[in-house]
Amino acid sequence: MGFSTIAIHAGNEPDSATGAVSVPIYQTSTYAQEGLGRHKGFEYARTQNPTRSALEKNIAALEGAHYGFAFASGMSATDAVLKLVKAGDHVIVGDNTYGGTFRLFSKILANYGIEFDYVDTADVTNVEKAFKTNTKMVFVETPTNPIMTVTDLQAVSDVSHAHGARVVCDNTFMSSYLQRPIEFGVDIVVHSTTKYLNGHSDSIGGFVALNDDEDAEWIGFVQNGIGAILSPFDSFLVLRGTKTLAVRMQAHDKNGRAVASFLAEHPRVEKVYYPGLISHPQHELAKRQQKGFGGMVSFETGSLESAKKVLEGVKLCTLAESLGGVETLISHPATMTHASVPVEKRGQLGITDGLVRISVGIEDIEDILEDLDQALS
Q1: pLDDT averaged over consecutive 10-residue blocks of the chain (377 residues)?
Q2: Which distant-in-sequence residues (6+ apart) come within 8 Å of 300 by Cβ?
Q3: Please, which of 69, 77, 241, 250 could form a disulfide with 198 given CB 3.0 to 4.6 Å?
């Protein structure tokens, strides 16, 4: 079956009790049991919920995975995956990772004996050199947030597997429609469903997709044991979102390309970060690995003052954290999404005070471009 067919039907079977086409919101904390040890597959809502189960089947199918687990946020999903390593283990991480991921790894998990090294995963030789005898996992984002660097997933997977390490990919920026990391050897895919999978800026959630039986059993155990589950209502909202994922991502991709091209020619813009531009150093890799280039664009204005004028000058675009909604969101990585990253490290990565990030929405492109032009001018 094609992607859109899977998105609409996987996990979305009509309700057996009523025939409802949309999966009902099972807003319950527990389930009546027929007798000791006899029930209908559901005992307690932290452990199982029909609405959440439907979503887990849905996104797992979209990622080409056997197993899927929905969490209360993208960060709780990432934290659950890191429970696959233990004190004394070493993890290689992409150096331009999301600020919240960096904070979790460097400020929290590092306190429990897990060792992290941050390298530029755009060059697979950097990954190769970073391996130690205790390396158990390689964690990458591609494209990265917000510099939009692309990592060769197949190359990193091959090197990592040769060293006996799992590969985890945060696929939030591309979504399951534009990129399917498991097809390139990645072992585990994580998402913030808050972003493109939900797509309507009205739910917080996370997801883990994978194929390995033992790892899946452990992730399920962690999900239940810690209890950072996605609620029935949020599960319903994300299921609503994935049904239109394909058409939304096509629109985001089309508008993202137009915005990137516009900014690349604008005299007030010093540099544009977007894999869809021929000038992007990993443009050809992105063409091979991705189905499109998406709606995330970053650009350099030259200074904090210039960035502030743009951020406060837009009228249609919304100055806000997050991304992936149908509306265009604009943000300042240095003080928002990556504020937890040390200033020196931000400077090394190119996350300057003049950098602006846009999550291009699906409004009429003429209106988006007009708003950006007047704000820049």
Answers
A1: 96 90 96 88 93 98 98 98 98 95 97 98 98 98 97 98 98 98 98 98 98 98 98 98 98 98 98 98 98 98 97 98 97 92 89 97 98 97
A2: 269, 270, 271, 272, 350, 352, 354, 355, 356
A3: 241
Catalytic site residue from 136, 180, 195, 291: 195
Query: Are the beta carbons of 81 and 190 closer than 8 angstroms?
Result: yes
170 counts as catalytic: yes
Has 274 been annotated as catalytic? no
The pLDDT of residue 108 is 98
Q: What is the pLDDT of residue 15?
A: 87
Marked catalytic residue, from 95, 170, 353, 371: 170
Catalytic residue among 15, 46, 117, 120: 46
Between the CA atoms of 145, 146, 151 and 157, what dihedral angle is there, to the nearest 10 degrees?
-10
CB 322 within 8 A of CB 194: yes
What is the structure's pLDDT at 196?
Answer: 98
Sole residue written with tokens 């799992």: 166
Cα 85 to Cα 232: distance, rounded to the nearest angstrom? 29
